[in-house]
Design goal:
The chain has 387 residues and is mostly helical. The chain is built from 15 helices and no strands.
Length: 387
Amino acid sequence: MTTITAPSAPRLGLPRLVWALATTQFVGRAGGVVRSFLVLYLTQAQHLSPSTAGTVVAALGLGDIGSQLLGGWLGDRIGRRNTMLVGFVGAAVALAALGSADSMPEIWAAAVAVGLTVELHRPAGSAAVADLPSQQRIRAFGLLYWAANLGFSVATVAAGVLAKYGYGLLFWINVVASLVAALIVWRQVPETRPAGSVRLRQKLLPVVLRDRRMIAMMVVHVGYFTLFLQTFTTLPLLMMADGLGPATYGAVLALNGIAVVALQPVAVRLLAGRSGNVVSAVSMLLVGAGAALGAVSHGTAAFAGSVLIWTLGQIGIAVRFGDTFADLAPAGLRGGYMGLASTTWSVGAVLGPLTGTALLDLAGPAVLGSACAIGGIALFVARKALS
């Protein structure tokens, strides 16, 4: 096993490995039609209350936490390619189980299983990209994020149309996409784990506990992802309450992916040479402002405007997220460090749905909007303090 350090048959200065990983990202996200519509499936097809649906989405996020830690650990132990294969095949099985579950225990268990597998590939793939020379890293992470959002745009528009034929169809599309992504990994992705005995490698926990900057960075990003990811649970509920249907929600949410696809390449060129601290801080402020506006919006245009505002912040975070944590990671622990970085997203995926739906349910849209605005300001200050 060898580390990828130089391009092989480069396109845009990136190795084939990155393009293969980008293809899996596109396929997985283009077919990943379940997650964005899960809260609607649970409230409309399963007839759960918004709060109960929020706990199921949070259960999926709880599985995500385990998947990031497990994915990073497995990537450093059994190899990155094998970890990605386990993740995509396992996700196909778990999604089929969630789509056929009827009782609440079955739904919760299947949601945890989906979370545990559907993102298992991410820290392993990120570790492979983190091995690249620093001048390629930002472009490589940008390409992966761009491909994922191109797929996300396809998924949201298609799912909004296909949902009228039944949510079961969405689950089976997602299952097939996961299996196709596994096939791409099997045929196109080489193993990149550095050679050497596992027993000679550092243990992750003692190193991280001494790394105060890593811990502080994780705490700030947990706060950011809590704020950001609650929008994907509260936005459909706010739009339904405003009399807008699933197809309109899908079209508005698709603006997020379309904007990322259009603006991400430009953002990489404009922001790559700027202070990562400033870029991230301003981006978190924009996400808070957009989420606050969305909570008090009425009408398709207003909701679309709020999505575009927090999408600008999302792009700024994405440009520097992988590179920020890759710079902190020791060479022998890149899988573990990138797994911990991805875990901040997963913790936010638990706290965001719970916090957002609880505030919306118990206090109403105005309080939710105020909390989002205050959260954005607090994150701006905290991220600037990490300079």
